[in-house]
Amino acid sequence: MTGLFATTLALSAFLLFWVQLMSAKLILPLLGGTPAVWNTCLVFFQAVLLLGYSYAHWASRLKLTYQVGLQIGFMLIAIAFLPIQIASQDLPPTNANPSFWLLGLLCRTVGLPFFCVSTLAPLIQQWFHQRSKQDRANPYKFYAASNGGSLLALIAYPTAIESQLRLSDQTWLWTGGYLGLICLVCASGWVSIRVGSRNADRVPEFENSPLLLELPSSELSSQDYLESDGVPNSPPKPPTGKQKWRWIVLAALPSSLLMGVTTHITTDITPIPLLWAIPLGIYLFTFVLVFAPKPVLLNPVLSTFVPTCVGLTLLSSNIVGISIFLLLPLHLITVALLMWGCHSELAKAKPDPQYLTNFYLYLALGGVLGGLFNSLVAPIAFSWLLEYPLVLVLSVFFLKFPQTRSLRNLYMLQLGIMLSIAAVGLNTPRVTGQLLAQERSFFGVYRVSKVKVESQEQIVFSHGTTIHGRQSTNPQQKMEPLSYFSHSSGIGQLFAAISSKPSLRVGAIGLGVGTIAAYGKADQDWTFYEIDPLVEAIARKYFSYLSDSPAKIKVAIGDGRLTLAKADQIYDLIVLDVFSSDAIPVHLITREAFATYLSKLAPDGAIAFHITNRYLDLAPVLGKLAENSGLTAFKYRDNMSLLQPKFSDYPSTSIGNSPSTWVVLARNPSSISNLVKDNHWTKIKATNKALWTDDYSNLFSVMSVRQ
């Protein structure tokens, strides 16, 4: 019986985690990667999860036969919505906020299946407690199985599912898993009813919850509170308001830490693809540890040194030049200890199983609040990632206080040092050079700083460790394109090769600081497509490439692929500069995306991709897409290491050029014949790699650390 329940909960958690990732990929081509899309999806899934836990809390007061019948009935009805798919007529509104449309789409497609699966974690544990005599005191051990299923999905989705299966195949496989889950739920329900039929039916008594309207509860059987020798035992007390608030806070802190550390390490430390999976894996694994049949809680001696870890983490975040091989483990270890500590306190604070569903309801509420704080509140309230160090410090005060005098004194000393570091460090975020501006949007924190490169002063625009552009402050060199866009770079050579073309029309996805506008001429029309309006504001306020360009410049705000598709312009050159960080917008390099580009490209036009990236080699993907679209693809890479602070072999009038990799695709190779005579350009040969489409992409196949 225990194995059946554990398998059911592990599979339900696996499907629940999987469907969220799958649904986001299904929606991406329709609405792009705007923050409104991701936040709407986040709010939807968290709201439905909370609704599912609320339903489980209500249903647990019914007779077991009714609970099982209702659950199976809902799950059977949800089959009508499977496989999860988006119909061809499901198109977002063109002149209105798509958030409500997206909520409606999610409700119609994934809402009921997600709701049904989300109810199982608390409900099936309640079935086990309500009817089982064996291991009756610990239904919470199944929460470890549930989080283990989520952890397995986290590992399996990017490594096995996404890399091997198209989205259409995934939806059918998920449907098969859902049908298997129904069978397991039926078996679990039948076993629970069969075991329970030997005892008098009873309904557990619950206190009035402020979260939902409670129905009158039934009286418990007097046998429920008899010890093994028949001596009456007092019934467990219902959780107090203070206990509920503690549950909420202890669940909210790790949830906030998860999002905070993920954002920090992927933007401010190193933009390694899929690095986000490590903090999430730690988060899930600590749940498995503390709710296991033999719980592994944070050791009191180990917890004594948590303030030191937090202090070192805060200190390291304000020192420039520390190796990522020190920074990354330090942040991950510190967050792991805090998550483990908070989850340990949660495990120790769990109520009698009679109030199990109530406990999980407040747990879910805390998780939702922690996530919403980071995703919705913090970007508006803070100009940088202040929420992460704040929650780091706050979490320390919710861990168990050392009991022995020696450890307590040591703990207090460390706590004082940590608070001193926090008082200074929270006001001085790490930055190179003189900070001119620091602003934040839903896409992250942007910094504008003034730095000296050898003898030259430059203004630099950065997002974490990714530099989006730089410009010299020297009036004679202000219109010199720098960084990845210098005259000696691939894009610089491309503009030189096509400069004689009259009335050149250029479309560019990704604005940065508008560096390539330096190549513009008076008779040319240029349109930049930028997803974040704050980037345009920074580019115009602190840099002059856009305003000083002789060309006619226009900036269109929105997802590049979708906004370009709506444009009525035909371009001689389309430039894409959005692939340098860890968050690769996959929907911009698919067969369907190429169809959009080609529909906006002149017969003798070209498409240029900036693919400089330390961890991803997108050239084979572009080569396959070019082959499929009947294009010829050439690759340019500077003759230098991406990891060495050298400059291009080509002459340049300014310091500050960066090595870069560019791919140019053309319908007519003769249109760029002058360009590819240079031996730095090589033709991309056809490969046997799978074609990337809106239905399939494989990030693992292009991962490569360059030297």
Beta-strand segment tally: 12
CATH class of the largest domain: Alpha Beta
- Please, how many helices? 21
Beta-strand fraction estimate: 5-15%
Fold-level CATH name of the largest domain = Rossmann fold
Sheet with the most strands, sense and barrel status: 8 strands, mixed
Average pLDDT figure: 85
| Distance between the amino and carboxyl termini | 54 Å
What value does the Rg take, in angstroms?
A: 29 Å
Helix/strand/pairing class, anyone? alpha/beta
Proportion of residues in helical segments = 40-55%
Instruction: Show unreliable segments.
Output: 200-231, 640-654
Number of domains: 3
Q: Spatial order of the strands in the main sheet?
A: 7-6-5-8-9-11-10-12
CATH architectural group of the largest domain: 3-Layer(aba) Sandwich
In CATH terms, the superfamily of the largest domain is Vaccinia Virus protein VP39
Transmembrane segments: 33-56, 68-88, 100-121, 142-160, 172-193, 247-266, 272-292, 297-316, 322-343, 355-374, 380-399, 411-428
InterPro entries: SAM-dependent_MTases_sf
Keywords: Membrane, Polyamine biosynthesis, Transmembrane, Transmembrane helix
Protein name: Fused MFS/spermidine synthase
Structure description:
With 707 residues, the chain is an alpha/beta fold. The protein folds into three domains: 1-86 and 98-204, Growth Hormone, Chain: A (Up-down Bundle), CATH 1.20.1250; 241-430; 465-702, Rossmann fold. It is built from 21 helices and twelve strands. The chain has helices at 2-31, 35-59, 64-78, 99-118, 120-131, 142-164, 167-196, 241-269, 277-290, 300-304, 306-316, 324-349, 356-381, 387-396, 405-425, 490-498, 533-542, 545-548, 560-566, 591-599, 619-629; strands spanning 434-441, 444-453, 456-463, 466-472, 505-509, 525-530, 552-557, 571-576, 601-610, 632-637, 661-666, 681-683. The strands form two sheets. The protein has an eight-stranded mixed sheet, with helices on both faces. A four-stranded antiparallel sheet has the order 1-2-3-4, with helices on both faces. A hairpin with a 2-residue loop joins strand 3 (456-463) and strand 4 (466-472). Helix 8 packs antiparallel against helix 9 (277-290). It starts with a helix and ends in a 24-residue tail after the last strand.
